Structures are given as structure tokens and as C-alpha cells.
Amino acid sequence: MSLKGKSAIVTGSTSGIGQAVAEAFAAEGCNVMLNGFGDAAAIEKLRADMAKRCGVNVAYHGADMSKPAQIADLVAKTNAAFGSVDILVNNAGILRDVIFHKMSASDWHDVLAVHLNGSFYLSRACAAQFREQNGGAYVHMTSTSALIGNFGQANYMAAKLGIMGLSRSIALDMQRFKVRSNCIAPFAWTRMIDSIPAQSEEEKLRVERFQQMTPEKIAPLVVYLASDRAEGITGQVFGVRNNEVFLFNQPRPIRSIHRSDGWTPEKLDAQLKGAFSASLTPLERSGDVFSWDPV
Questions:
Q1: Which are the contacts of 286, defined by CB distance < 8 A and separation ≥ 6?
Q2: Which terminus of the chain has fewer CB atoms gathered within 10 Å of its CB, N or C?
Q3: Band of the pLDDT at 193, cuts 50, 70, 90?
Q4: pLDDT of 86
């Protein structure tokens, strides 16, 4: 996949999807900067094992994705260790699931700080270098919770939908510098979602389905989108669910109504429902849309 000799930063890569992506990059000959939290000895073992097994340079930086100064140091240390940054995977995240009317300000700010602000800070920190070297690849993790919906995740949904907009903006602004930016909505059983309740039979079945979808199933698409083989693919939103890969649509007008004499609330009441009702997006959750078993 043309990754040999390149260097990647993968956030949230000490476990779960991020670790699987980092392992896949290293296996392709890419130097990897790990990032995340956890037991220091376990992280060092992961780093050393990956480097030895794959024959590449692997380093670690514990930057907090909500702290711009630490993020700037992460990029500087990656350049010092590898001589370049060619790929950025914005994967780090946290959950603070609470029903909307009970969500605290800290629940809201903490999630946006890591997911959305962190993705901006780190993307921006890499942008000047990508521009100067006339190339680079961003892969950001969004979620079907944002693209479709879920209960008790106003903070997470807002952050992940914001990441979709951020990725699209980067793709537009950076295309003249041969820089690509894409999103992936991953389905995978990871530490971040292992607190999903499993009381009812329906919930237990949902968890069983999720446990089939391992982080390693996400990594191939990330590797591909980060590689030179994905030239021309930018500003897109993909999904991975077990062995399925999806391309999501993005908001475009689907119906319109007009009046030459303009609108009043009464005229809208008379026409809008009849014209639009068949095309209104229902209040569904991700599980309602992806209703079939993972393939």
C-alpha cells in the first residue's frame, strides 16, 4: 500500500481500533507514533513488540488530545523520531453518555474537547507540514451514532458530526496540496463501548453482534485510505461493519417547494407536510438502519 518509509500518528492507539490500525501500519512498513493512556509498562511492551515484529520505528507520546501545547509537542517529537509526518489518524475518544436533559456542562465539554477539538488541534498542527511536502493523508473516526442517531449521546453525536464537517473542510482547503481527508464510521467492540447495557434479550443479542466485530476489521480500510493507492478519494465518509464496507451519502437537497408570491406560516402549513412528509428522515438509531446481522 506504498506505506514503507512513511510515518503516521495514530491517536488512541494503546488499545482497540487505534492499536489495530497502528499494528496494520507497522506491518506495511510505516513508522508509527503511538498515543493514548494506560499502564506505562504495558504501553512500552506494546511499542517494543510492534517495532521488533515489524522492523519499523515505533515511538510513544502521551499527549492529551484536549491540550494544544501537548499536541504540538507530539508532532514535534514525531518529526524528531522519524523525520516526517505523512499520515494522521484521529481516533482518540471518550464517552460520557447521559440523556440530554440530564447532561452536565462538563459531560458536554469533555467529550467535545477530546473528539472534536483534539481532531482540529492535531490536524492543524500537521497541516503546514503536509502543505510543504505537497502530500499527506488524514483519516478521522466519526460514528453512525452521529450520522444516524442514538439515545443519550448528544455530546458524542455533536462531536462526531462535527468531525465529519471538519474532514470535509480539510479536504476542500487542502486538495490543491495533494492532501486527502476522509472519515470512517467504525463498528467494533472496544473498551470504549464495553459498558453497553445488556439486561434484556434484545440488548444481549446486540452486544453479541458487536463482539463479532473486532477492531482488526477496521484497519484495512484505514491503511488503504492512508496509502497512495487512494489518490482521488477525499472528503468522503465510509463505514466498516465486520466484513462490510459502506459509503455514506452526505446532505443534499432532496425535495423543494416554491411560491412566486412568497410564503406565510399559513401557506407553509397548507403545503409543507404534504410535499415533504414522505421524505422526512425518521428518528431512527443506528441499530434500526443496520438491522441485519453483520456479514
A1: 144, 145, 147, 148, 149, 150
A2: C
A3: low
A4: 98
- DSSP symbol at 195: T
Judge whether 284 and 148 are in contact, CB under 8 Å. Answer: yes
What is the CB neighbour count within 10 angstroms for residue 143?
Answer: 25
Q: Where do the structural domains in the chain lie, given as residue ranges? A: 7-251
Pairing of strands 237-241, 244-247: antiparallel
The one-letter code for the residue type at 36 is G
Q: H or E stretch including 138?
A: strand 136-141
Q: Per CATH, is 7-251 categorized as 3.40.30.10?
A: no
- 226 vs 26: CA distance, rounded Å: 13
Helices (H) and strands (E) in the chain, counts: 11, 8
C-alpha cell at 54: 515489524
**Residues forming the active site:** 156
